[in-house]
């Protein structure tokens, strides 16, 4: 798992209900994993916006369902590279 860049973000994750933490941490790890494998993305800045972890995009998921990892990976890559695609 990627270390938290800020103590504030770490505290927010720790305060989520336990039943959601695993999925949220999986998504967080996926964001950093996809970013590290995607050319020209650069460093991801993790911060809080309105008291929630922010990575510049929002995806709303039903916490009771299994995470759609393949689909999330595509969404994350597209979110991280949309400005790069505009330049091409």
UniProtKB/TrEMBL annotation:
This is YdhG-like domain-containing protein.
């Amino acid at each position: 798992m990627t270390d938290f860049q800020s103590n504030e973000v770490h505290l927010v994750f720790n305060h989520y209900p336990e039943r959601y933490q695993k999925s949220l941490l999986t998504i967080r790890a996926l964001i950093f994993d996809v970013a590290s494998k995607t050319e020209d993305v650069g460093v991801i800045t993790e911060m809080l916006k309105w008291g929630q972890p922010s990575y510049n995009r929002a995806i709303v998921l039903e916490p009771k369902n299994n995470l759609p990892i393949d689909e999330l990976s595509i969404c994350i890559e597209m979110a991280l590279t949309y400005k790069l695609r505009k330049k091409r």
